[in-house]
Amino acid sequence: MSGRQSAFTFVELMVVLAIIAVLLTIALPRYFSGLERAQEAVLKEDLFVMREAIDDYYLDKGQYPSSLDRLVQDRYLREIPVDPVTDSRETWIVLGLPLNPSVVYDVRSGARGEASDGTLYYEW
């Protein structure tokens, strides 16, 4: 042994960091867009399930439920789902009938903003 230790040079470390930075600039946008698409898919599914429960409630009882909690109490839903965009159960917008606004006729997301397809979340 000549007494010289082997180690990475500064240039080698900079090349490795540059390669990692390039890979991250390619991967991160894809990751976040995939995450957004997954949240939108969950939101669409949650809306479909809740609307289906409202319709089933109406078909069984002949009237619309008075609240989303009524769907849970009568076992049409196990629980009120969490809005994946707002990350809350409290942001659902309940729509009633024009002549009877105190019932649950439809439900929408309370999320602000635009979906990846250009539509607004609260219009779904």
Describe this structure in words.
- This protein has 124 residues and is mostly helical.
- The protein has a domain of 86 residues.
- The protein has 2 helices and 2 strands; from the N terminus they run H-H-E-E.
- The radius of gyration is 25 Å and the shape is elongated.
- The model has no long low-confidence stretch (mean pLDDT 93).
Key attributes of the depicted protein:
mainly alpha, two-stranded antiparallel ribbon, elongated, 2 helices
Q: Please count the helical segments.
A: 2
Order of the strands making up the biggest sheet: 1-2
Rough outline: elongated
Order of helices and strands: HHEE
- The end-to-end span amounts to 72 Å
What fraction strand? under 5%
Report Rg: 25 Å
- Count of DSSP strands: 2
Weakly predicted, low-confidence segments: none
> How helix-rich are the residues, as a percent range?
40-55%
Mean of residue pLDDT?
93
Global structural class: mainly alpha
- What summary fits the major beta sheet? 2 strands, antiparallel
Please render the helix and strand layout as text.
Layout: H1 10-61, H2 68-73, E1 93-95, E2 106-108
Antiparallel strand pairs: 1-2
Q: How is this structure best summarized?
A:
The protein is mainly alpha-helical and 124 residues long. The protein has 2 helices and 2 strands.
